[in-house]
Amino acid sequence: MGNLVKAELFKLKKDRSFWTLILGLVASGIFYPMLIFFDGSTQAISVNDLYTYTALGGNNYIVKLVPCILAGFFISSEYSMGTMKSIGASGNSRFRIYYAKLLIFSIGAMIIALTFPIVIMVVGAILSGFNDMPTLDYIVRTLGLTILYAVAFASIMALVSIILTDSGKTIGFLILFFILFDSIFYGLSQKFSLIETLFNYSAFKLFLEISEFDLGDGVLLKLIFVPIVTFVAFGLLGSYVFRKKEIK
């Protein structure tokens, strides 16, 4: 298992799509606050507001959409290239192969999820002279929850990637899925009580609440517990599908 993880980590480090996405997010995180601070306004900018509403608000889309591109190139493309067939013939169990790939893909998704909010907060703090910084416990909590939800969504992306086995189809389907599913899920929840309960306890809805300032212990536990369960559930489902799937 250790060698599989090292091999997948090496591939992630060399993945051009991954570094292109990271560089794009870094550039966005740098230039956005610069546009705000150099627009000629004399009003002091709050880093707390910049982090909470701009960084975390924009990250809602980044966490769910940007890793979809990585999933297509990092997982699905290995089928068309024949790499997956070679890995499957290496003597390692498919369970280990899948979880090694899921683990490293999840790490990639975590890095993507953290890049924009951290960069925009750091740049904003430097430009504003650290004016009205968010509290350390708020930063740690929101970034920690961002990691959990990035991993949860990554497990869904990994499952779709091994089902479709084509990078173009995977990227297209996942982007449409994450753009439309929230609205469809919410609409159905307004008509059916069971679906409403599922929606209220889903990672899709709870992810939008991680930037809230005041969270009770029960709410915080729910925000932590749901993405962990989501990751485990889709991880097990993905490993089952991968074990049953014919690799050509």
Largest sheet: none
Task: Give the class from helix and strand content and strand pairing.
Answer: mainly alpha
**Residues in β-strands, percent:** under 5%
Query: Given the structure, what is the number of helices?
Result: 10
Query: What is the global morphology?
Result: globular
N-to-C series of helices and strands: HHHHHHHHHH
Give the N-to-C terminal Cα separation: 23 Å
Q: How many strands?
A: 0
Low-confidence stretches: none
Task: Please compute the radius of gyration using only Cα atoms.
Answer: 19 Å
Provide the number of structural domains. Answer: 1
Name the average pLDDT: 89
> Fraction of residues in helices?
over 70%
Pfam families: ABC2_membrane_4
Organism: Cytobacillus mangrovibacter
Protein name: ABC transporter permease
Keywords: Membrane, Transmembrane, Transmembrane helix
Explain the overall architecture.
By secondary structure, this protein is mostly helical. The chain has one domain. Helices cover 81% and strands 0% of the residues. It has ten helices and no strands. α5 packs antiparallel against α6 and α5 crosses α10. The longest helix has 35 residues. The mean pLDDT is 89.
